[in-house]
Write a structure and sequence with these properties.
CATH superfamily of the largest domain: Aldolase class I
Number of domains: 2
Helix content: 25-40%
Largest sheet: 7 strands, parallel
Strand content: 5-15%
Distance between the termini: 24 Å
Number of strands: 10
CATH architecture of the largest domain: Alpha-Beta Barrel
Order of helices and strands: HEHEHHEHEHEEHEHEHEEHHH
CATH topology of the largest domain: TIM Barrel
CATH class of the largest domain: Alpha Beta
């Protein structure tokens, strides 16, 4: 949920007994440090910082020029020229030594990886700093790679999940395993705990994940409508619309496949061959520029409105109230969520 999570949201979850999370894949080291410190000003609970471990982009001038030309009419609708060139706007954690230094200095309780696993030396340094490590997997093969690398738990990302698919290979085959079979498969084959994610929106969904053998559940889309999130008004309106019932997979926005609410950008990319889309995150440079100019004209349909298949069950309430509701649905009356003084040490 990089770009949507905020220090206020993470702190509210932490104060309610959960593991608050910050997605820093779309910011730099200084931005990550500021976010971590902002959380700590609000809560003393356990914090997870999520980083992107994608292979560094491979520029292709011809593909990028053709992509700009394809998008030019969309920019011209708003009387704005298309970009002259596209750049790699986000650095992968694979090569971001400054981000690693921030994590080693700030020592969040948990660091989680998406799109892959960092080099052994990076893992060694994080583990030496006594940071709990989580890795996202979409298949048993990926999960075993993470387990062998030394992560403390594996996140089982079902195909229902919103946002970017965590497949390790950029253009690899996606087995599209749902949360139910993937969670059960990993729970029976791994020696480390499994965290289920994808389509889980309420306490019953959490209970189902635990029944399948997961040790915990990770929720993302459920928190988008919270007032603490960075979702803009167009994103929130789309989440409450019929679009929530029809999420689609698209590569066109960022350059990697992700589940999104259907909008103008997903329609634009529906018929585009995958090989015509620039590499991640170079394609994102164009998408963000187009969204910015469209949003200035009150058109929100070009945004990265990531959402999972559980989107229709989204609730508009504060993150702390949502946490209370989730705990009530999971455990019933009389068992309030733990406060900061009762949280485990995540070890």
């Amino acid at each position: 949920m990089a770009g949507v999570t905020t220090p206020d949201m993470a702190a509210a979850v932490m104060k309610s007994g959960g593991l608050g999370s910050l997605g820093v894949g779309t910011t730099d080291a200084a931005g990550a440090r500021a976010m971590i410190r902002a959380v700590r000003e609000r809560s003393k609970g356990s914090l997870n910082v999520n980083v992107f471990c994608h292979p560094p982009a491979t520029p292709d001038a011809a593909i990028e020029a053709a992509w700009i030309e394809r998008l030019r009419p969309e920019f011209e609708r708003f009387d704005v020229p298309a970009p002259r060139q596209l750049t790699e706007i986000f650095r992968s954690f694979f090569e971001d030594k400054e981000m690693l230094a921030v994590l080693l200095e700030e020592k969040p309780k948990v660091v989680s990886f998406h799109f892959g696993v960092p080099p052994p030396e990076t893992l060694r340094l994080l583990l030496k700093a006594r940071i709990v490590l989580l890795g996202c997997a979409t298949t048993l093969k990926e999960a075993l790679i993470l387990q062998d690398a030394g992560v403390d738990a594996v996140i089982a990302q079902g195909y229902e999940a919103g946002g970017h698919r965590g497949i390790f290979q950029v253009n690899g085959n996606d087995d599209r395993l749902g949360t139910l079979p993937l969670t059960r498969l990993l729970a029976t084959r791994l020696s480390v705990p499994v965290i289920a994610t994808g389509g889980i929106m309420d306490g019953r969904g959490i209970a189902a994940a635990l029944e399948l053998g997961a040790s915990a559940a990770q929720l993302g889309t459920a928190f988008i409508a919270c007032p603490e999130s960075h979702a803009d008004e167009g994103y929130r309106a789309a989440l409450k619309s019929d679009a929530a019932y029809h999420t689609v997979m698209t590569r066109a926005i960022s350059g990697r496949v992700a589940r999104c609410l259907p909008n103008r950008f997903t329609q634009l990319g529906a018929e585009v061959p995958e090989d015509d889309v620039p590499c991640y995150p170079i394609a994102y440079d164009a998408a963000k520029a187009l969204h910015a100019v469209a949003k200035a004209s009150r058109e929100f349909g070009y945004g990265a409105q990531w959402a999972g298949q559980g989107a229709p069950m989204s609730r508009e309430q504060g993150a702390a109230d949502l946490m209370k509701a989730l705990v009530h649905e999971l455990f019933g009356e009389g068992i309030p969520p733990g406060d900061e003084s009762s949280q485990g040490d995540m070890s």
